[in-house]
């Protein structure tokens, strides 16, 4: 039994040898999983997976995994990664857990929403809004070409006075650059860091 992935645009033709006990269904699932994995790793912006296995597509679409195939949840996770969260979240924050990262924290819903937006790299700053085609111009009103989270915390003269407490707390970490400082702080955020991020958001009146 075998499985294959073929992409004429990428000149890609991969073949996989599977166990002789594998079913045709499993072969189709394996091919779809690898096609998605290859596309995400190559950061292909638009892709379409073509398969003639209606049963696999229906299982992926359904909430339940009636086939009990272990790759179906993996395929769903990859699709979710591609469509909603993006690679930043999955590369830095995603873990397979029955509990969310904030389950032990007693914060309000708005508080958690703000932190989740920052962790998913989708927030109310021009660089993110432009990336989602909500606005055209990603620049900051201070004339920086990109208004992103790193800029407003560390570089923007318009938010400098509001960012001081958060910036000082981030700089206490042992990281080599600003991006790593923010990512590391959001991976396992302390209650203090959470409050500083949300406080900065409110002070800037941005509603991240």
UniProtKB/TrEMBL annotation:
<dbReference type="InterPro" id="IPR012337">
    <property type="entry name" value="RNaseH-like_sf"/>
</dbReference>
<dbReference type="InterPro" id="IPR002156">
    <property type="entry name" value="RNaseH_domain"/>
</dbReference>
<keyword id="KW-0812">Transmembrane</keyword>
<keyword id="KW-0472">Membrane</keyword>
<dbReference type="InterPro" id="IPR036397">
    <property type="entry name" value="RNaseH_sf"/>
</dbReference>
<protein>
    <recommendedName>
        <fullName>RNase H type-1 domain-containing protein</fullName>
    </recommendedName>
</protein>
<dbReference type="GO" id="GO:0004523">
    <property type="term" value="F:RNA-DNA hybrid ribonuclease activity"/>
</dbReference>
<dbReference type="GO" id="GO:0003676">
    <property type="term" value="F:nucleic acid binding"/>
</dbReference>
<feature type="domain" description="RNase H type-1">
    <location>
        <begin position="17"/>
        <end position="74"/>
    </location>
</feature>
<feature type="transmembrane region" description="Helical">
    <location>
        <begin position="20"/>
        <end position="40"/>
    </location>
</feature>
<keyword id="KW-1133">Transmembrane helix</keyword>
<dbReference type="Pfam" id="PF13456">
    <property type="entry name" value="RVT_3"/>
</dbReference>
């Amino acid at each position: 039994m075998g499985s294959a992935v073929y992409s004429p645009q990428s000149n890609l033709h991969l073949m996989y040898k599977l166990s002789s006990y594998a079913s045709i269904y499993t072969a189709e699932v394996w091919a779809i999983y690898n096609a998605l994995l290859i596309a995400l790793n190559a950061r292909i912006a638009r892709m379409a997976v073509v398969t003639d296995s209606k049963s696999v597509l229906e299982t992926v679409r359904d909430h339940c995994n009636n086939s009990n195939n272990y790759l179906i949840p993996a395929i769903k996770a990859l699709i979710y990664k591609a469509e909603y969260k993006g690679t930043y979240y999955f590369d830095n924050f995603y873990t397979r857990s029955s509990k969310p990262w904030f389950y032990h924290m007693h914060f309000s819903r708005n508080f958690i929403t703000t932190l989740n937006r920052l962790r998913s790299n989708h927030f109310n700053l021009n660089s993110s809004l432009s990336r989602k085609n909500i606005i055209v111009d990603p620049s900051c009103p201070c004339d920086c070409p990109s208004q992103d989270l790193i800029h407003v915390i560390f570089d923007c003269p318009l938010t400098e006075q509001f960012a001081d407490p958060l910036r000082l707390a981030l700089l206490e970490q042992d990281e080599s650059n600003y991006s790593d400082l923010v990512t590391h702080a959001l991976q396992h955020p302390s209650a203090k860091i959470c409050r500083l991020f949300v406080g900065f958001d409110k002070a800037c009146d941005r509603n991240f």
